[in-house]
Amino acid sequence: MPSAKERYLIVAGPTGSGKSALALALAEAFHGEIINCDSVQVYRGFDIGAAKATAADTARVPHHLLDRVAAHEDFDAAMFAKEAKEKKAEILARGRLPLVVGGTGLYLRALLGQGWHADLPQDAALRIELAKLSLAQLYAQLKALDPKRAAELHPNDRVRLQRSLELVTLLGKPLHEAGLTADSPADPAAFVIVLEPPREVLHARIAARTNVMLNSGLVDEVRELLAAGVSPDCKPMQSIGYKQVCDYLAYKLKDVELPGAIIAATRQYAKRQCTWFRRTRTDLRLEGSESLDSLVGTVRAVIQK
């Protein structure tokens, strides 16, 4: 068993569940520092649509792995896990508590040591061939070769569909048979907290947050990124909110359609996140509808048992 000095907290859950607010409160209560576990927040310039920590947040509590790379640079789960472990060690060495916060399941799986690692096979020629396939073809082929993995992904998630099909082809077996599964034992030093509000509460929060983002200048943020030379096809620009605004700026969506398009895509993503986190080893599952003081008290009572 890990010693108390090795323990760290993970605050996970779907988008809009209140992870960031709880993490800030926990970090202040337990003298902690936050490690970002969101695959869009690692990119510089992607602030409003990624709900990135504000200057006020970072003044309250130190944050790590924000603004890590430029839009055109790659940053994957293996890179995240390596850097997050380094930051975790540094925080522990300072006598403080690391809190890993975010909803990117693949990043979390890599950090917990659940199969995804840096030396997974790659084949450049195969990637070129897979890139020529349509989304429907990618999904159909993955479903035929690894129905379990296909069921975990959205049919429009080209990046993960293509990488999963590449791995299944190179490994010659479904990913779970190769040990690439969330069913593998997780890092015992991690105390995993998952927030999952009731569906109606989550939907209301998603709608409210979408309106806040749009009123805070999301369209201008995307317009400025594009004017600075950021490609609309880069990975972070394909994320929810940014993709819809790109469509809007390309006259593929009307003013009245933009909020609904973002809300619908966010709800679909949150549903997939909930499904994924229900299969993840969880030490404490919370609805998150209580006050922050109450939530912090609940966490304190459980981890001090």
What does this structure look like?
- The chain has about 300 residues and is an alpha/beta fold.
- It has 2 domains: about 5-115 and about 180-305, P-loop containing nucleotide triphosphate hydrolases (Rossmann fold), CATH 3.40.50; about 125-170.
- The chain has helices spanning about 20-30, 55-60, 75-95, 105-110, 125-130, 135-145, 145-150, 160-170, 200-215, 220-225, 240-250, 260-280, 290-305, and strands spanning about 10, 30-35, 65, 95-100, 190-195, 285.
- The protein has a 6-stranded parallel β-sheet with strand order 3-2-4-1-5-6, with helices on both faces.
- Strand 2 (about 30-35), helix 2 and strand 3 form a beta-alpha-beta unit.
- Helix 5 packs across helix 8 (about 160-170).
- The longest helix is centred in the C-terminal third of the chain and has 21 residues, at about 260-280.
- The model has no long low-confidence stretch (mean pLDDT about 90).
Number of strands: 6
The CATH first-level class of the largest domain comes to Alpha Beta
Please indicate the count of domains: 2
Number of helices: 13
Which residues form runs of ≥5 with pLDDT under 50? none
Sheet of most strands? 6 strands, parallel
Described by its quaternary structure, the protein is single chain
User: N- to C-terminal separation?
Assistant: 15 Å
Look up the CATH topology of the largest domain. Answer: Rossmann fold
Strand content: 5-15%
Strand order in space, largest sheet:
3-2-4-1-5-6
Which whole number gives the mean pLDDT?
91
Radius of gyration: 19 Å
The CATH architecture of the largest domain can be named as 3-Layer(aba) Sandwich
Order of helices and strands: EHEHEHEHHHHHEHHHHEH
Helix share, percent: 40-55%
